[in-house]
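Re: the 288-residue chain
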Amino acid sequence: MVEPISHFFHSHRLRLQFWDWGSEGKPALLLVHGALDHARNWDWVARDLSRDYHVYALDLRGHGNSAWAPGATYTVVEHVLDLSALADIIQTFPIYIIGHSLGGVISLLYSGVYPDRVKKVVAIEGLGLPHGHRVHRPLTEKLRRWIEEIRNSEQREPKAYPNLQAAVNRMKEANPHLSDEQARHLTLHGTNWNADGSLIWKFDNYARLFPPYGHSLTDMAEIHSHITCPALLFWGTESFAGDPTKDGRASGIRNKRFVRVEKAGHWLHHDQLELFLRETRAFFSEGD
């Protein structure tokens, strides 16, 4: 089994981790995970694609083994900043990017802000939250709710699980499509042990809150309009995220193609791995 090498870099005065899967001299591919997740969720994807790409997987701030942000600054713009810092360290432009959920949002925004630096981008349910979500309500309402959520979080202790199996069970509850092996792997890389033998998730609890800024679909569409590279957009038919082909969230992206994945939820790169790899490989090779 190929194992990646752990590295750290600094962005915004934070010490952040990324995993390097090797393959020197091959095109650079960045993998960006979603909210409350970690970079090792990409292991099955990275092992396959590292045959043809130099794969890097980022632990977002407040996730995995990366530092938690003082003041809990976890808006989308900070994540795009961190991705840009890592891309500048890699310095192999134009790069390929794959992002899932929040990571897909980050990847598409980076592709619009730096269109000359991205060769192709893949987003798995990474088009932002649908129109009916509470992040699109009036700003006064959003700001008040965010303040209240922050104040409540200050009194909240991270949930502990008495043993590894209990944490694995919670992982499978979040995604029933996971096999026992997948759930155990994701849990082992996504938890820390307490002194009493219980486990807690690695992510900062403050990263689960929705800041009042950074979710504007109008702003995202404006940035998306600057993307010049081809974009491949996946969505799972059993996902809670909704159908992006019907609600216009991808309208700003000119050169795009949708892939609708049956029998898959939000984490479709786990649920239908072979299909995801087949479609992604074909997309990356188009035009070469």
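The chain has a mean pLDDT of 96.
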